């Protein structure tokens, strides 16, 4: 029996107090396509960075082709024939195909580059590997993302690698381009290469991989054969099932429709979105990177203009031209990057809390500081913001307390619609619960709340309804009381409902993704 | 697969590109034509050679800036920029004049002057690469530092000097073309080969345009950026000899050339298919500006009009190329 192409054993890696990887094993056989799946934060990217030599593992060994190493530098690992195709297209836009393919190891004649030879060689390689013709003299900036991806794969192939690692290669590709990419990867395997394929699109994993390692919370929880395991089963393995009593949820009967989207489309990001948000309702929205959920929220923030369809706010046709415009129309925005957009870190707690509604504290253009102090002290007490006082700078607060300030500044204003983008990212458990309580209270006061989150248990806990997006379209709508993370994830990754998937796989495994 | 499907450029962008590229060439020809008709002797070989010679100082400085812009990226605010070039020229000219007057032999004086230019380049490279200051601020600071050094050296006066080298540069001719013109063309040829046709140049472009990609390709990004400042420093020293020949010694007020140098380097961008800084484009831009100044002189138009035209050109070029780049968007 031949030794595995890659064998990682007992890899452990901690960042401060958090353990990103906990004794992970990964064994990749020669000439196979090995899938690596896991939720966001499961440790996929850390594992790959350890393999690439960017991070150094705290413990564990790494073997390439039977040779064991304790740690490798990025150059050493490349010298051993392990190459990486990164998610971003690492090609300078103004380069021609030939230049982009060969820069760093140019074909030369004496001190000069042989441009013609490079272009000829590039054309030959693309024809040979992929049966593709690029227009002569095309620049990288003129190629679509799939062709840039192909160019990058070709670049890696120039080094005659033994193992190619693809890190989320399909994120910015459209369906047709993904099919092309998968066909190419299969062809590379048939030519004898070993492939590691990281993705959270389970359909791709299912149709492509020979074996799949599932990561969860920094551990490799299972190694499965995708031919005998359904996508839904894999999805179940990926999901963290601990749902505690974290989610205080007030029961509210939804009122009339406050915000309605009709047939909203924006380029490649999303298309034909119909959605309605009611008074007193918490609507969850989720989707993987590239699903369009983020862009949809940006549209409601006024940052992205839709190309088709309409937005109705309290029954009236509205155009949200900018975030300023959205705020003026009664929409409260809590963006994900709260440090840069949600709060002004250098201003005091008081200033931040009263910034959104300054007109309420001013008379004839002058601010009434007594009213500001009263209001901010009230909010600090009410939200339980842990701060030295209302004069403390927001930058001195913890992430959770900053988020409370970001939310709190809208509270006194009585907005009709709240849009929250990943409200609990980067804050500790205790603060999370308080944020959830706050969201519940907003709904109880009659506000309509839309929460975008990739934390599925959280979404189930705090929402009434959950919408899932997949590749730019609404893929499903669920009642939060009746759904579990498995089904949400299956929907977000494009796997179908449990029963149908299992059935399809038995009949015709080759068509598990369509 | 038809190639039209592969090219994903929107029509508006392609029209914009066409206008910018053809437009700038057209403008160059138009200016030549107008002056040829209205200004006496404009197209005479003597005058043309004269324009080449007079453009040498600005052109060589602009070549240096072009290299820095290529290696640092063409973003005007955060990309590569060397504002100290003109001041560096002033310092080098002063250093050469005083060394020459102090009686050092030609080789020593020339060598030390080149070293001075390189040292300033190394200082800029150090602040940008090691201290990670934005080039705009780093070179603004070094510009002031160097201008101060020059004042200390010259006591804010002109240091007249004379040497065989300066004589040849000032009055020499070959094939009835002034030596200064040959220097301009020679530097253009050398740097053109280095930047447009050698692996070094290609890598410098990669480093400037997409540092992450260059790093992923195993290139030492910092080293390339540093080397681009060294080239700029060397260009300043070479230009300093031309300037010393032109003025028979060091001059005060070399800093006034800065605006023209920046204008030329950014104007050069529009003469390339890919809208990137490049040596032949910079040469064309240098000549465009040279002919403009020369034509104005022949027509007896006040020279401060040239400043106005320069300002408008910078605005136009920077605005248009940044608008086109924005459309290109994130990759």
Automatic annotation (TrEMBL), chain B:
GO CC entries: plasma membrane
Membrane-spanning segments: 23-42, 48-71, 105-129, 136-154, 174-195, 224-247, 253-272, 279-298, 304-324
GO MF annotation, one: transmembrane transporter activity
Main localization of the protein described in the UniProt heading: membrane
Subcellular location: Cell inner membrane
Stored InterPro entries: ABC_transp_permease
Key words, A-Z: Cell inner membrane, Cell membrane, Membrane, Transmembrane, Transmembrane helix, Transport
Domain of life the protein comes from: Bacteria
Membrane topology designation: Multi-pass membrane protein
UniProt xrefs under PANTHER family: ABC TRANSPORTER PERMEASE PROTEIN YPHD-RELATED, ABC TRANSPORTER PERMEASE PROTEIN YPHD-RELATED-RELATED
Similarity annotation: Belongs to the binding-protein-dependent transport system permease family. AraH/RbsC subfamily.
Protein name: Ribose import permease protein RbsC
Gene name in the database record: rbsC_2
